[in-house]
Design goal:
By secondary structure, the chain is an alpha+beta fold. The chain contains eleven helices and 14 strands. Among the domains are: 52 residues, Uridine Diphospho-n-acetylenolpyruvylglucosamine Reductase, domain 2 (2-Layer Sandwich), CATH 3.30.43.10; 91 residues, Enolase-like, domain 1, CATH 3.30.390.50. The radius of gyration is 18 Å and the shape is globular.
């Protein structure tokens, strides 16, 4: 790991200024950035540690919305009675991320900003129609995830919170890769004010909505509606863990299980 400058701002305003430094990288829990730096996949000139910003931590539930501060850890979301009461599947999803170390250090904002193609939180955000709040604006989940490890965030833009509308119904199923516990394929389904949404992670170069399944489930919220749905494998991943065709076949199976 090469030498780099380190800053730990005490306020969001200070963090925004530090983020404007040349080749600066923002760090939340460090579970993605530090690993990439150790492997030589990232070599920023400066690291801006957001860990001291208490204003970016915490959970509130009000008016049919669950709002989670960007620096709230996966473990805190999993243990939250408020989240469990409002969106039980979101608490369950958080409790299944990585291992205990990752859950106690990793944050929801960091996960979304990193946008790993097999991460769990992007599926929850897209599957629930969440809004990602930053120090500059609010971004709908449909507009936030733009490609492989890419998002709509501008250079130096800081996620401050994520708000999830409470759905009528929701479910989540992950076929995990045993070593990493990332999703080989993960499917998040919901029915609520934004209609039926089905988000898939792990199968392609980024999280995406499975429109064919959404159409079927909009006609009837039943696992049986997923039977016979064909998912196009042409843009899905093939690797040592499974072919694109295998992943395509898993998507409706996991969607059926998620619906229950």
């Amino acid at each position: 790991m090469q030498a780099f400058a380190y800053a730990k701002p005490g306020s969001l305003a200070d963090a925004a200024r530090a983020a404007g430094m040349v080749d600066a990288k923002l760090m939340a829990g460090g579970q993605s950035l530090l690993a990439a730096m150790k492997l030589g996949l990232a070599a920023p000139q400066s690291v801006v540690d957001l860990g001291g910003l208490a204003e970016l931590k915490g959970i509130t539930v009000s008016g049919g919305t669950v709002r989670i501060g960007a620096l709230t850890t996966h473990a805190a979301v999993a243990a939250s009675k408020e989240v469990a009461a409002a969106i039980p599947v979101l608490a369950a999803l958080a409790g299944g991320i990585g291992d205990r170390q990752v859950r106690n250090r990793g944050t929801i904002g960091g996960s979304l900003a990193n946008n790993d193609p097999a991460a769990d939180y992007p599926a929850a955000a897209l599957g629930l129609g969440a809004t990602i709040h930053t120090d500059r604006r609010a971004i709908a989940a449909d507009d936030f995830f733009t490609g492989l490890y890419e998002t709509a965030l501008a250079e130096g833009e800081i996620i401050t919170a994520v708000s999830f509308p409470v759905p009528e119904k929701a479910g989540w199923q992950k076929f995990k890769q045993p070593a990493s516990r990332f999703a080989l394929v993960g499917v998040f389904v919901s029915k609520g004010s934004q209609g039926v949404r089905v988000a898939v992670t792990g199968a392609g170069p980024g999280v995406f909505r499975a429109k064919a399944l959404e159409v079927k489930l909009a006609a009837g919220w039943s696992g049986a509606q997923c039977d016979g749905v064909k998912i196009d494998a042409s843009n899905l991943n093939t690797d040592l863990h499974g072919s694109a065709e295998y992943r395509a076949a898993l998507i409706p199976v996991l969607a059926k299980r998620a619906v229950g």
